[in-house]
Amino acid sequence: MIIALKMVSAISQKGKRPDESKSETTIIMLPSDANPKGNVFGGVILKHLDLIAGLVAKRHAGHANIVTASIDRMTFLKPVYIGNALILSARLNYVKRSSMEVEVKIEAEDLDIGERVLTGTAFVTVVALDEHRKPIEVIPLILNTDEDKKRFYEGESRMMTRLKGAGKVVA
After folding, report:
1. Count of H helices and E strands in the chain?
2. φ and ψ at 130, to 5 degrees?
3. With contact defined as beta carbons under 8 Å apart, do 108 and 48 qualify?
4. Yes or no: is domain 16-165 CATH 3.10.129.10?
5. Is 120 left (phi over 0), alpha (psi -120 to 50) or beta?
6. Judging by beta carbons within 10 Å of its beta carbon (0-12, 13-18, 19+), is residue 113 exposed, middle or buried?
7. pLDDT digits over 48-62, tens only?
8. I need a surface site. Which of 6, 35, 70, 132 has the fewest CB within 10 A?
9. Which H or E run includes 109?
10. Model pLDDT for residues 114-166, shown as the tens digit of each residue
11. What is this structure's pTM?
12. What are residue 103's DSSP bridge partners?
């Protein structure tokens, strides 16, 4: 048993596949989540987006404290209403040293007719911190599929753009 645990620990130190950290959650939207006309507040959606992005990053980083550094432009493509199921699907696209990009797809499902619509997509940058609140290195992503590789390189490009926009030197 101890040998098996050591092997699992050694394997996990080498990296994880994006599928090992992905998550999906579904939440029913209630009157307290919306304005008087029934439209769900954008802030409610952003709260759930931030929560699931943090969960995905925490699954990847393990013991580290996870904090949100940025959320790329969030455009609400379609409204979400009271009574809709808010469905968030999140996966890790890119890992640098201590920062990670999590892609979150947001859908609304009209439960009366069973129809889903895409309401938005966002890219959340999160950072792993140690117990002293300093950035800590996380394990790399293992890229087995062409899709994983494509998402990784697109994420890397977005990360470079974010860093340039923040006035940080990109090497």
Report:
1. 3, 5
2. -90, -170
3. no
4. yes
5. left
6. exposed
7. 999 999 999 999 999
8. 132
9. strand 99-110
10. 999 999 999 999 999 999 999 999 999 999 999 999 999 999 999 998 888 77
11. 0.87
12. 91, 123
Who contacts 12 (Cβ-Cβ below 8 Å, separation ≥6)?
62, 139
Q: Six-digit token pair at 8?
A: 């699992």
d(CA 153, CA 123): 14
Among residues 10, 122, 108, the alpha carbon closest in space to that of 68 is found at: 122
The full length of the chain comes to 171
Here the tokens at position 31 are 């009157």
Task: Report angle CA 31, 37, 39 to the nearest 5 degrees.
Answer: 65
Q: What is the DSSP string of 49-103?
A: HHHHHHHHHHHHHTTSEEEEEEE------S--BTTPEEEEEEEEEEE-SSEEEEE
Task: Look at residue 137 and give its three-state secondary structure.
Answer: coil
